[in-house]
Amino acid sequence: MELFGSSKPAASSAETKDALKQRVAAEVAMANAQQLISKATEKCYLKCVPSPGTSFTGKEQTCTERCLERYFEAFNIVSSTYVRRVAAERQAGALATDATA
């Protein structure tokens, strides 16, 4: 089937849905990453730069770098733990469903 007179066939409904799901997932991931960076920057800036000036002092820069490293490390630990827990719960749910069938 042609799409608006083009010589390329139209994508199937399933392909279109999958492509849309992937695009939405990518946009959600990007928004989440931007929010994470914004929140980390805000928290570390407030902690490490008590009196903003025209440039970072060495102490402020070191504090900010370490703060961001710790923030992202903590996020990664929490995120991976959460993903493992959800996977284990899904597997346990699937096993329970299989056992009742």
From TrEMBL:
Keyword Nucleus included in the entry's annotation: no
Major localisation: mitochondrion
Subcellular location: Mitochondrion inner membrane
UniProt GO molecular function: metal ion binding
SUPFAM superfamilies recorded: Tim10-like (SSF144122)
Membrane topology designation: Peripheral membrane protein
GO BP annotation list: protein insertion into mitochondrial inner membrane; protein transport
Domain Tim10-like intervals: 23-82
UniProt keyword annotations, A-Z: Chaperone, Disulfide bond, Membrane, Metal-binding, Mitochondrion, Mitochondrion inner membrane, Protein transport, Translocation, Transport, Zinc
Pfam families the UniProt entry points to: zf-Tim10_DDP
Transmembrane domains' residue ranges: none
Cellular component annotations (GO), alphabetically ordered: mitochondrial inner membrane; mitochondrial intermembrane space chaperone complex
Record remark: domains: The twin CX3C motif contains 4 conserved Cys residues that form 2 disulfide bonds in the mitochondrial intermembrane space.
SUBUNIT field: Heterohexamer.
Family to which this protein belongs: Belongs to the small Tim family.
Role description: Mitochondrial intermembrane chaperone that participates in the import and insertion of some multi-pass transmembrane proteins into the mitochondrial inner membrane. Also required for the transfer of beta-barrel precursors from the TOM complex to the sorting and assembly machinery (SAM complex) of the outer membrane. Acts as a chaperone-like protein that protects the hydrophobic precursors from aggregation and guide them through the mitochondrial intermembrane space.
Protein name according to UniProt: Mitochondrial import inner membrane translocase subunit
Originating organism: Malassezia brasiliensis
This protein's encoding gene: TIM13
